Amino acid sequence: MKVSDIVKERPLSTIAPDKTVQEAIKILNELNIGALPVCNEKGELAGIITERDVLRLCDGGDVAKGLQQKVSAVMTKNLIICVPDDSIENAMHVMTNKRIRHLPIIGEGRRLVGILSIGDIVKAKLDDASTEIRFLRDYVTGG
Fold first, then answer.
1. Which residue, 57, 83, 99, 113, is the most exposed by fewest CB within 10 angstroms?
2. Number of domains within the chain
3. Among residues 97, 90, 140, which one has the least CA distance to residue 116?
4. Is the full-model pTM beyond 0.85?
């Protein structure tokens, strides 16, 4: 199974690097998501701002001042990414080893085409296991 098999076409929310952390938090909360890709004006991925990035900022002292910082100052810039043809097993391995919950999916020209979450992987694996169990039951019972 590939990344492209489980990440369906859906609207993808992003934020510009010059927006404030407070604006990013508002989007994260409104969409009930844990990570927000940061894209430049060309649509190229520049970074990602996650709940962890916000928590680190809040742990640093003056929270009100921190919320007014630009996303570019707080975002994770050293990105770990995947491509649509990567296997789900490889993505799981990367996420586990790097202790991350979101992988941006990059297409040609460093363009963001999606984001893979650990929840997406868990759901796909559960669906796959359910299908396999159903086929095995049918095989055993002759149905």
1. 99
2. 1
3. 90
4. no
